[in-house]
Design brief:
By secondary structure, the protein is of the alpha+beta class. 45% of the residues lie in helices and 18% in strands. Nickel (II) ion (NI) binds next to strand 2 and strand 8. InterPro entries: HGLS, YdcJ_bac-like.
Length: 456
């Protein structure tokens, strides 16, 4: 059997999930909570867990932090084999972290339907490190090899073919997992670790280990509020508030919650060849519920209402914040029709069964008319990316208090990240606009029309 990029992505995300479950038992518990909650949600609708949409059954995102441009280029090539490409720019300097990144994910409607697995990938910005530490970091990372020679060979070969024999795919996945695996032994001495950590905990997390360990793997749920309650009930160290928009009739973007990073035992060299025990805090658990992709206008409104809530609720507890957020978002329309007419959300349009009966319409007809006549229907497009503010919030809440550093004053640097990647980063909103346009073009062609007018 030969595998294509979609099959490889599914195999890879499943293998990664299995590995992470063995490494972090709480992740297994989280998956169980999601299954229980989704089962209860479906039961209330008279359905069963097996009726969970395929996407929800296998959907996850992961996150890794890389050290060098070289590592970033290599990961780009590996993810491309899994049909995952860089979308969106995330500037973590906004919260004082010397990192920026992108999300590797599938692009086409078909590939997303098969499996939308994505990896939030950041890379260390050496230009933002203090000069006194930069040389040490560069030297440590120069000696690190995340990609085994066998893996590099397989990537180069696979780039020339469009499918891969099953046996080779197993090898590729086996070798790839090594990049994401956790190691409880640091590559540096206890002293070096402490120095890098005092520069920034992220610097230590990136530079002191032999792999780019996956730091969380996030399942998607049908009801994040229930998951949050259930995490608390089962005694998981859950955060006290859900990030992203408030609960709504028409969910938008995504909502996430997490349990705090684990303190893990790590062995260090004491500088004289003896192993000494220490700890490191990096990996955490997260869960998310996805909503609709917003347009630029929708994103602006979201940002505006969120920052309004943040300003109004400085220093209030999680529960009170939920209330303030909910009130602030009353200004964000909450029916699909208003969201559509207001140009706030992207939709996928489809020709209905009625259209196949052959109703005649003019060659140039407005979208509204087609909808009124029941010839076309629509469904919101799922948001496939990350929340810049949410990402920042999650980074922050998983760091020890003293590391909440002041804002680094520097401009975002998408061109620099594109140069490091050696390719363009797609703008996420352009991707959704294209999905909507493609769906309308399919409707136009199926209905045999010249033009559909009046599209938002
Ligand atoms: C990535 C955090 C971003 C999300 O869901 O917003 C992220 C990290 O901690 O490396 O995964
Ligand atoms: Ni995440």
């Amino acid at each position: 059997m030969a595998l294509n990029a979609d099959d490889l992505r599914t195999r890879f995300s499943e293998a990664l999930s299995e590995m992470y479950r063995a490494e972090v038992p709480l992740y297994g518990e989280l998956l169980q909570i999601v299954r229980d909650v989704d089962g209860a949600v479906l039961e209330a609708q008279g359905k069963q867990l097996e009726d969970r949409p395929l996407r929800n059954q296998l959907e996850r995102h992961g996150a890794i932090r890389l050290g060098t441009e070289h590592e970033l280029r290599a990961i780009k090539r590996l993810f491309a084999l899994f049909g995952m490409h860089p979308v969106g720019y995330y500037d973590l300097t906004a919260v004082g972290f010397p990192l920026h990144g992108t999300a590797f994910r599938p692009l086409t409607a078909r590939a997303l339907d098969k499996n939308p697995f994505r990896v939030f990938t950041t890379v260390l910005r050496h230009d933002l490190l203090s000069p006194s530490i930069r040389e040490t970091v560069d030297k440590i990372l120069k000696d690190r090899n995340l990609f085994s020679p066998r893996l590099c060979e397989m990537i180069a070969r696979a780039e020339r073919e469009s499918t891969m024999p099953a046996q080779e795919a197993n090898d590729l996945i086996f070798e790839s997992l090594k990049i994401f695996k956790w190691h409880s032994r640091s590559t540096v001495s206890m002293n070096a670790y402490a120095r890098l950590k005092s520069e920034h905990p992220m610097v230590a997390d990136i530079a002191c280990f032999p792999s780019a360990h996956i730091n969380h793997l996030t399942p998607r749920t049908l009801d994040i509020d229930l998951v949050q309650q259930e995490m608390a009930r089962r005694g998981l160290p859950a955060k006290d508030a859900i990030e992203g928009p408030p609960p709504r009739q028409c969910p938008i973007l995504l909502r996430q919650t997490s349990f705090k990073a684990l303190e893990e035992r790590v062995m260090f060299d004491d500088g004289h060849g003896q192993a000494v025990p220490g700890t490191h805090t990096a990996r955490f658990g997260e869960v998310e519920q996805r909503g609709a992709a917003v347009t630029n206008k929708g994103r602006e409104l979201y940002d505006q209402l969120l920052s309004f809530a943040n300003r109004n609720a400085a220093n209030v507890s999680g529960h009170q914040f939920d209330h303030v957020l909910y009130n602030s978002f009353r200004k964000f329309p909450d029916t699909w029709e208003e969201l559509r007419v207001g140009g706030l959300v992207y939709f996928c349009y489809r020709v209905t069964g009625a259209a196949k009966l052959g109703v005649s319409v003019p060659q140039q007809v407005s979208l509204d008319r087609l909808l009124d006549l029941g010839l076309v229907e629509y469904e919101p497009i799922v948001y496939e990316d990350f929340l810049p503010f949410s990402a920042a919030g999650i980074f922050k809440s998983n760091l020890p208090e003293e590391s909440n550093r002041p804002h680094i004053d520097c401009s975002s640097n998408v061109t620099e990240l594109e140069r490091a990647l050696g390719c363009q980063i797609l703008n996420e909103i352009d991707c959704y606009r294209k999905l909507q346009e493609d769906s309308l073009e399919r409707c136009r062609a199926e209905l045999g029309l010249e033009e559909i007018t009046g599209v938002f």
